[in-house]
Amino acid sequence: MTLRSLSLLVSLALCTPLAAHAIEFTPQELARASTLQHRLLTLDSHLDTPANFHRDGFDITQRHDHNALSQVDYPRMVEGALDGGFWAIYTDQGDRSAQAHQHDRDAGLLRLTEIREMLAAHPDTFQLALTAADAARIKAAGKRVVYISMENASPLVDDPTLLSYYHLAGLRLLSTVHFANNEFADSATDPKGAEWKGLSPAGKALVDEAVRLGIVIDQSHAADAVFDDLIERMPVPFVLSHSSAKAIYNHPRNLDDARLKQLAKAGGVIQVNAYGGYLIDTAKSEARKAAETALMAQLGTDYDGMSIQQGVALKKGLEEIDQRIALRKATLDDFFAHFEHILNVVGPEHVGIGLDWDGGGGLADLPDVSQLPKITAWLLRKGYSEKQIAGIWGGNLLRVMQQAQDHAAKVAAAAKP
């Protein structure tokens, strides 16, 4: 089982229901929040849902709740007032051999193709967005917004010039690295530690080319030294598509207050995530790990190979393990602790939402996108204005995209003879 699969299994367990008290909202609060959210443009910056597009039995237009593999589909997007967001091309980090680089290259192109095939199959429901202004236009047309992002630039190692092709095909957000170091950058979580002390020379060249094309850079999953390189190097703001606060939980994937302030000063945005293992210490025991490994063996396939029907069995199996071996569950209270801290440190103009749906995100009391108005209800309860909430739900992120695209257009115009 890959590190990604193990991490996903942990987070799936953290999304199962819990009996402990958690924050509650009145029906009136939720109704008000839902009404507002349906009116606003509501985007999530990190949707791993394309990882489901190849699964036997998955249909984006059908509801797949009560399933450990699926948190996002069209019916639940409508219910939760999610207009869309950034749909990720994710590639698991290989062993960095020549063979692995070619595999990563092909895997990235295949995932891009799957996203484009989904769009082609449902033109009345989903639409590709290419500019910051496209999202509002697509929402006004009654469709869901699909920006394309890339989580982990390993598909570009074999041939970095493919970035221009990805851009032509719709790529608008790019992260350099994931769980382990690659040829472009150091990861926040590689057990071997730093290799490049930030961006590698190839990583710097990749970032420069992305900026030239108007692609927004995403620092999530990269080491703090990469953040420092981006602050020094970038002529435009960048984002963290799904990260949280190190001051609340000292995890290497989270960002400290000093860097949060640097990000805001540079005009960037942090999209707060709901990946339980980054919000709290789950105190996972060896017995729990063994039980989960045995469950996967019983299902007879790895995470990526599961059908959507096996996702139902996986959910039931995890719930049965919960009865035998306790595991602390991340809740909205934990998410709001990070969310509020970051809002207090940098202000609502530099905060957004990237909950890592279908990639390990979700909470015991926020298991899928159908319940997103709970976040809006909390923001209203805290006294944030409609303008501020609109920024948090997508406006701030689109402002960064507009700056990136304006800069690219200016550079291109200056380069013309």
Can you offer a commentary on this structure?
The protein has 417 residues and is an alpha/beta fold. The chain has one domain (3-415): Metal-dependent hydrolases (TIM Barrel), CATH 3.20.20. It is built from 15 helices and 9 strands. The strands form 2 sheets. Strands 1, 2, 3, 4, 5 and 6 form a 6-stranded parallel β-sheet that branches. α9 (257-265) links the parallel β7 and β8 (269-272). The chain is globular. The termini are far apart. It comes from Stenotrophomonas rhizophila. Residues 1-22 form the signal peptide. Its EC number is 3.4.13.19. One of its GO terms (biological process) is proteolysis. Keywords: Dipeptidase, Hydrolase, Protease, Signal.
CATH superfamily descriptor: Metal-dependent hydrolases
- Report the average pLDDT across residues: 95
Largest beta sheet, briefly?
A: 6 strands, parallel
Give helix and strand order, one letter per element, not per position.
Answer: HHEHEHEHEHEHEHEHEHHHHEHH
Decide which structural class fits the backbone. alpha/beta
Q: How many domains?
A: 1
CATH topology: TIM Barrel
What overall geometry do the principal axes of the alpha carbons give? globular
Helix content estimate: 40-55%
Question: Can you summarize this structure?
Answer:
This protein is α/β, with parallel strands linked by helices and 417 residues long. Helix content is 46%, strand content 10%. The protein has one domain (3-415): Metal-dependent hydrolases (TIM Barrel, Alpha-Beta Barrel).
